[in-house]
Amino acid sequence: MTDSFESTMKGLTDDELVLIAHGDTDDYEEAAMAAARSEIARRGLAEDFVTTALEHEELRDRAEALRPDLPLSALARIVLIVIGPFSFWPAIILGARGYRRKSREAWICLLIGIAFQWGVIGLLFVIFDLM
């Protein structure tokens, strides 16, 4: 089993090795963690690289935790209002990727765009009927 872990570890990136070697024992078997530490030593990865990789992983985890509450940018709102009736895919994709707030705001912008465009169309009908 250890040979299997060692051969697997050779195919992993440096970052992946660090995450396994310093991971939680609930996530990885001790033999896998030991094989990862052995591969890190074999590759001669410096301790500061290991520390930096762990810090980056922590930052990625924080960013992932913030994902549901990130707002939609002003440019994205404008684009969604303009393309309102033509595409609802951005709102669906954002929701599927875990951007809960962005998805909700995208749906609102799409509805505003549809209402605005229908209002313009209605206004054009009124103007041309009066002429």
**Distance between the amino and carboxyl termini:** 85 Å
Which term fits the overall shape?
A: rod-shaped
**Radius of gyration, Cα only, in angstroms?**
26 Å
Largest sheet: none
| Count of strand segments | 0
Number of helices: 7
Order of helices and strands: HHHHHHH
Furnish the topology, listing elements before pairings:
Blueprint: H1 2-10, H2 14-21, H3 30-43, H4 47-66, H5 74-82, H6 89-96, H7 100-130
Helix pairs in contact: 1-3, 2-3, 5-7, 6-7
In brief, what are we looking at here?
The protein has 131 residues and is an all-alpha fold. The chain contains seven helices and no strands. Helix 1 packs across helix 3 and helix 2 crosses helix 3.
Throw out a few tags for this protein.
131 residues, rod-shaped
Task: Walk me through what this model shows.
The chain is rod-shaped. With 131 residues, it is mainly alpha-helical. The mean pLDDT is 81. It has helices at 2-10, 14-21, 30-43, 47-66, 74-82, 89-96, 100-130. The chain is built from seven helices and no strands.
